[in-house]
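thought: user wants a sequence for this fold. calling inverse folding tool.
action: design(structure=
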């Protein structure tokens, strides 16, 4: 018996020694990039300290505890992540690349410098956006991933018709025209479609059905001829919280009938003037006449529709960017041809701010809190460059406002990482820090879960597996 035990011990020791020899002599795993001893922060796992993460090409190849004997990693580029925090690359879900041509070409570098590695362009004419898509997607291009919708799909009247506002919308007067437009956009290669505010109910239905048949995700404002509880469940994302309060009003049903009449008979009003008049007449009265039970039902109807509130725009009266101590410094990064315009906006603000009503901003913050508590998904977008939204910089302001509205920092990060991926059905490919995910990463000098403002403290940005920004 004793001899049998000794033989077993000897055999176990021999196997252990052999295993150690095999481990020490096993070939190392090679990678393009290794970040060592870093704290990983994402919405799936929260915070994981003392981790190594390695990348080859445009993919995360693995994650393991620092100092682990499981695998030796040899990489062409090694970054020491000690006392630093790694998050997935950020998205801006609501951007208009062509809206202000003077800064369009500067957008890729600006976005990346602020850690935005993916953007969703939510409205541009095809002939204007196509050259930018080609540049951003060219082999070897240093640019965020660009997803685009093509033009705003508006009604018979077009708000953004190139007259009173830049031309980024097209008409959809009939269901037949709506279906034809979706077919053209699908053939042109758009990633999703964007429905706007003056479409009538039958046209809205045609746009939705055609987009579903074409397997194109749908972003939308709530059309003024419909209500949020009717339109919202039919689309994949809703923008700006626009017109949700109209469905919460005690007299919502009567008011939507009246708005339809106005849209069908606009008289001499342009699309922009018509929308502006309808907003002025119905929004304030709706917020003063909220039926809370009805509003609860509206919120419940939106459980499967990502809300992109663009709080930094909606709350601009209460939180103007011009009041930020570093705003003018960041304006200096814009092309010289655009700086004077942006500086002028800051200079004119003191004269106009007291004439503006902050009620819309307060409503937006309270509505986001209500939506979040109910479990409605929230996405992060800015409407860059509209309303003095600096490309990239403004996304961090949006994260701050989401936290002000009641989202924990981890959920705010989710709004700018996972939610956009869910819109496109690619959450298994990007948005978290795990093997197989896209190699879009942002290294921070401080913990964003402690203070969301720490997303501004960027040490390095990795886009498509390449280090494109490094602070030291």
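)
observation: tool returned 472 residues.
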């Amino acid at each position: 018996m004793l001899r049998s035990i000794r033989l077993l011990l000897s055999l176990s020791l021999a196997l252990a020694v052999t295993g150690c020899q095999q481990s020490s002599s096993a070939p190392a795993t090679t990678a393009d990039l290794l970040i060592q001893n870093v704290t990983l922060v994402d919405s799936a796992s929260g915070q994981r300290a003392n981790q190594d993460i390695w990348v080859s090409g445009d993919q995360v190849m693995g994650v393991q505890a620092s100092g682990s004997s499981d695998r030796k990693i040899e990489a062409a580029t090694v970054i020491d992540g000690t006392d630093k925090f790694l998050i997935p690359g950020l998205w801006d879900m609501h951007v208009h690349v062509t809206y202000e041509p003077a800064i369009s070409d500067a957008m890729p570098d600006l976005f990346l410098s602020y850690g935005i590695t993916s953007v969703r362009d939510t409205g541009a004419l095809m002939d204007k956006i196509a050259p930018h898509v080609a540049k951003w997607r060219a082999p070897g291009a240093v640019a965020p991933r660009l997803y685009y919708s093509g033009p705003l799909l508006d009604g018979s009247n077009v708000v953004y018709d190139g007259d009173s506002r830049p031309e980024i919308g097209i008409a959809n007067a009939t269901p037949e025209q709506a279906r034809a437009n979706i077919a053209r956009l699908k053939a042109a290669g758009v990633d999703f479609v964007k429905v706007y505010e003056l479409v009538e109910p039958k046209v809205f239905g045609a746009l939705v059905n055609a987009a579903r048949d074409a397997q194109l995700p749908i972003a939308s404002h709530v059309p003024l001829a419909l209500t949020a509880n009717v339109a919202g469940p039919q689309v994949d994302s809703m923008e700006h919280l626009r017109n949700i309060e109209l469905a919460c009003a005690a007299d919502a049903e009567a008011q939507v009938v009246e708005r339809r009449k106005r849209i069908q008979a606009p008289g001499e009003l342009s699309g922009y003037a018509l929308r502006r008049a309808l907003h002025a007449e119905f929004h304030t009265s709706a917020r003063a006449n909220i039926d809370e039970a009805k509003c609860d039902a509206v919120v419940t109807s939106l459980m499967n529709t990502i809300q992109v509130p663009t709080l930094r725009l909606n709350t601009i009266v209460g939180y103007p960017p011009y009041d930020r101590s570093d705003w003018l410094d960041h304006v200096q990064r814009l092309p010289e041809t655009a700086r004077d315009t942006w500086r002028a906006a800051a200079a004119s603000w003191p004269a106009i701010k007291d004439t503006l009503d902050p009620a819309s901003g307060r409503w937006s913050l309270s509505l986001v809190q209500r939506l979040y508590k109910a479990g409605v998904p929230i996405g992060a977008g800015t409407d860059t460059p509209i309303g003095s939204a600096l490309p990239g910089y403004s996304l961090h302001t949006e994260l701050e406002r989401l936290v002000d509205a009641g989202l924990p920092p981890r959920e705010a990060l989710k709004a700018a990482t996972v939610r956009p991926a869910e819109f496109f059905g690619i959450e298994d490919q990007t948005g978290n820090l795990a093997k197989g995910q896209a190699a879009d990463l942002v290294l921070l000098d401080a913990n964003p879960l402690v203070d969301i403002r720490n997303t501004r403290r960027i040490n390095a940005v990795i886009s498509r597996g390449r280090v494109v920004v490094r602070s030291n």
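thought: summarizing for user.
answer: Here is the designed sequence. The first strand starts at residue 29 and ends at 42.
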